[in-house]
Structure formats: structure tokens, C-alpha cells
Design goal:
The chain is α+β, with helices and mostly antiparallel strands. It has one domain (3-70). 46% of the residues lie in helices and 22% in strands. It contains three helices and three strands, in the order ααββαβ. It has helices at 3-20, 22-29, 48-57, and strands at 32-37, 40-45, 66-70. A three-stranded antiparallel beta sheet has the order 2-1-3, with helices on both faces.
């Protein structure tokens, strides 16, 4: 299986986990960016750049991490 296919499958698995646990994450991580790997929140921060710097310092390949954010209540994203 190709590297791209493995990354896509992992992304889908992490996204499903995030969706299934959104309410739990909302209570703990509102207004933050989350880094999820192996169906666990491995780090979170209000500042994406700070979060990415910490992941890099830990030697974590961000291509293998699901990054998502939980907006502050009353704020909606339009995609």
C-alpha cells in the first residue's frame, strides 16, 4: 500500500474518532487546536504555531498527526 494511502486511511480513522468524541473534546479543549495521534490527544494549544513547534521538538512527524480545532462557543466556520 502506498504512503499516501496509509496517510489517508489514518486521517480518516482519526477524524472519525474526533467526531465520535466531539462533545468530550469541546468541554476540555474549547477554543484550541488539537493534535490527535493513535486516537489520543497528544497536545493542544490556542496557538497553532506553538503547537507545531512543540510537536517538532518532540520529533513527531506532523504528517502523521490529525490537526483540528474546536471554535469558541458562538463562532462558526464556513467552509
Amino acid at each position: 500500500m502506498s504512503e499516501e494511502r496509509l496517510l489517508l486511511e489514518n486521517f480518516e480513522k482519526e477524524e472519525s474518532h474526533f467526531d465520535a468524541h466531539y462533545e468530550e473534546f469541546l468541554k476540555k479543549y474549547e477554543d484550541m487546536v488539537l493534535a490527535i495521534k493513535d486516537q489520543k490527544v497528544i497536545d493542544a494549544d490556542k496557538d497553532l504555531e506553538k503547537l507545531l513547534e512543540r510537536l517538532e521538538k518532540k520529533g513527531i512527524d506532523i504528517r502523521r498527526v490529525y490537526l483540528t480545532s474546536i471554535p469558541k462557543k458562538g463562532i462558526a466556520f464556513i467552509l
